[in-house]
Design a protein that fits this description.
The protein has ten helices and eleven strands. It is of the alpha/beta class.
């Protein structure tokens, strides 16, 4: 009885420190008990990078999607701010995850899998950013950066998820992101980090010993489950090793003074700038930014909440304000693309080595649909200058995860599947 209690305590502590790394449920025991950074796959000339920008509340589809496909598509109200980068991105229509749920399916944008249905999946509901970070993020201080608003409607930022089904908590403002990137910890903070890291390592050793003991007492079917668990342990070991290394290395010099948080969409320009600098300093190669209901639009002269406007009911005044807010978002995204195109590493622009995804897990917020998601994919070879209508009447739907497989492959990762993919879409 005591052994079972100790095991539960170890599981709880390890979950507290490492996200979630619990010993799997093994049927054959049911009666007994109720060095290196990850290598980049493939051959790539320069490090590949990935940025995803997700809007929690979608966009006005009829003002987003053109009527004409191909290179000659007309500029819609919401695509017009991207005009100067037209040859650097592709617009997609008809890609989605085939899900329903409105706000409660938005968190599937980068995974294709509902959180509550992920338990028995090999990779859970891991999002494409975390999937890529496992391979691309090993040599950087931060394997990935998740930025967004913590609060807001329906739980706030839920853009990034790990293989173990844990939501990656976001950095919630420019002030916090600036500190994370450029402010070096004090000596006392470093010592505390060392103590926490060593405690994690000690707990991990204990759990590894427990798992090793289990491996000698289980059947073949359960051994496969335990092998997956050992793989998770190895991932945590790599993170602990990386943390030990970076704890003693200074951060890059700050390029300007610490910014203030406004808690409005006025924070977007600075958040984009800091993400660009994180890529330029190679502090990370994977980043996400979620724009949710907590980014208030008051600085645009709009006195209503973002979420309430999304349920516009075709009210002309509300739609006009919503388009003003959505256009502002596209304007800031356009400036971000320009910034990435200006920044260079070893003679190559960061945009050329970065796949930048922009879109939403919501198709039409007013009617709560998750179909025909608005998708723009820029940089990183996605520079067709086209509007592609992937699915049309009578044509089989193409999962958005098929595009994620292509992103992974272009990043040098050898994989033929991701999430709910049925193949690869290029």
């Amino acid at each position: 009885m005591r052994k079972s209690t100790d095991l539960k305590r170890r599981r709880f502590v390890l979950q507290s420190f490492t996200g979630s790394l619990l010993l799997p449920s093994l049927a054959s025991l049911a009666s007994a008990e109720s060095d290196a950074f990850p290598a980049q796959g493939g051959a790539v000339s320069q490090p590949r990078r990935f940025v995803a920008v997700g809007n929690l509340l979608g966009f006005q589809q009829k003002h987003f999607f053109p009527a004409t496909t191909g290179n000659g598509y007309e500029e819609t109200t919401l695509l017009k701010p991207l005009h100067e980068h037209r040859d650097k991105f592709t617009v997609y229509a008809g890609l989605d995850h085939g899900l329903r749920g409105g706000h409660f399916a938005v968190h599937t944008f980068l995974s294709g899998v509902l959180h509550h249905e992920s338990k028995n999946r090999h990779d859970g509901n891991v999002t494409i950013d975390q999937f890529l970070a496992d391979s691309l993020g090993g040599g950087t201080r931060f394997p990935s950066l998740t930025v967004g608003s913590e609060g807001g409607i329906h739980g706030g930022c839920q853009l990034s998820w790990t293989r173990s089904g844990v939501r990656v908590p976001p950095v919630t403002g420019p002030a916090e992101l600036f500190e994370k990137l450029f402010v070096t910890e004090t000596e006392s903070q470093k010592k505390r980090n060392v103590r926490e890291t060593e405690l994690q390592a000690s707990i991990l050793d204990s759990v590894l010993e427990e798992a090793g003991d289990l491996s000698r007492r289980i059947n073949t079917e359960d051994r496969a489950k335990l092998d997956e668990y050992f793989s998770s342990i190895r991932d945590v070991e790599k993170k602990i090793k990386a943390r030990r290394q970076w704890n003693h290395q200074a951060k890059p010099d700050a390029p300007f003074k610490k910014p203030a948080n406004t808690n409005t969409v006025a924070d977007l320009p600075m958040l984009y700038e800091l993400i660009a600098l994180a890529l330029q300093t190679d502090s990370t190669r994977v980043a996400t930014l979620e724009i949710g209901g907590s980014f208030l639009p008051q600085n645009l002269g709009i006195d209503k909440s973002y979420h309430s406007m999304s349920h516009h009911g075709n009210d002309e005044e509300v739609v006009a304000n919503l388009l003003k807010l959505e256009t502002y978002q596209l304007e800031q995204f356009s400036k971000f693309l320009k910034r990435l195109s200006e920044l260079e590493m070893e003679g190559e622009s960061i945009l050329d080595t970065t796949a930048v995804l922009f879109g939403s897990g919501m198709g039409n917020a007013s009617s709560h649909t998750n179909t025909d998601l608005p998708i723009v994919l820029a940089g990183g070879g996605y520079d067709s200058g086209e509007y592609k209508q992937v699915a049309s009447k009578g044509v089989q739907k193409v999962p958005l995860c098929n595009l994620f497989v292509d992103i992974a492959q272009r990043s040098g990762i050898e994989t033929d599947s991701f999430g709910t993919s049925t193949g690869v879409y290029s």
